[in-house]
Write a structure and sequence with these properties.
about 0% strand; mainly alpha; about 210 residues; Rhopdopsin 7-helix transmembrane proteins; about 75% helix; globular
């Protein structure tokens, strides 16, 4: 795939990122607290992406690296926290709660040893595993699970983390030009999140695990 085609896919990924944010803002008054936090997470991700484009245009690679390092920590920490506060399983919530300090230490280790790829792939595997368990438990306990916005947030998270790990962690060392596939993964994940926000039909009850 040519660099120009890849560029278009990356632009499309950024534009599609606006969809779940706009859908979340539309449903904000009817959203429960955890869904509102998830909207904030997506908004920060969008700002980070826009900052990356600004740094690309201005050729400020140093600033872009600092922003990406900070966002790596924020993304992993938030998703661990999100699962810890929304999963129905007590054991799952406890595991991700106790793992939060480990995430910070693991992230900080990149400044002393080269653990950037390990941090991304390691946290994505754990997040994918946790979100998959949360999905299965909700499907077992709730006959109307597909109508719950939380299920779609977990599903989008699982899809993004698992697919990114598979592509970048496994295929990335064996294939060239997989970045376009990563852009497609981003687009599909944003569409799943958009479905989740649009599934909010009425005033949600307060979170039961917070």
């Amino acid at each position: 795939m040519s660099e120009q085609t890849l560029y278009y896919w990356q632009v499309a990924g950024t534009l599609v990122a606006f969809l779940p944010v706009l859908a979340g803002l539309l449903k904000y008054p009817k959203s429960e607290k955890s869904i509102r936090y998830f909207l904030g997470y997506l908004f920060i991700g969008l700002l980070t992406d826009l900052t990356g484009w600004y740094c690309y245009i201005t050729q400020n690679e140093t600033t872009n690296q600092y922003v990406r390092h900070a966002y790596d920590l924020f993304e992993a920490f938030f998703l661990f926290w999100f699962i810890a506060h929304t999963a129905t399983s007590k054991y799952l919530r406890n595991f991700f709660s106790w793992a939060l300090p480990v995430v910070v230490v693991f992230w900080a280790s990149r400044f002393w040893i080269s653990t950037v790829p390990m941090f991304k792939s390691g946290t994505q595997v754990v997040i994918a595993f946790g979100s998959a368990l949360a999905i299965l438990q909700m499907l077992e306990q709730d006959e109307q699970a597909t109508q719950r916005p939380m299920l779609w947030m977990w599903l989008g998270t699982f899809f993004y983390c698992f697919s990114t790990f598979f592509l970048m962690g496994i295929l990335g060392t064996k294939m060239a030009g997989v970045w376009y596939a990563h852009a497609i993964i981003n687009i599909l994940a944003y569409l799943i999140f958009t479905i989740g926000f649009l599934s909010i039909r009425q005033q949600s009850i307060p979170d039961s695990h917070n």
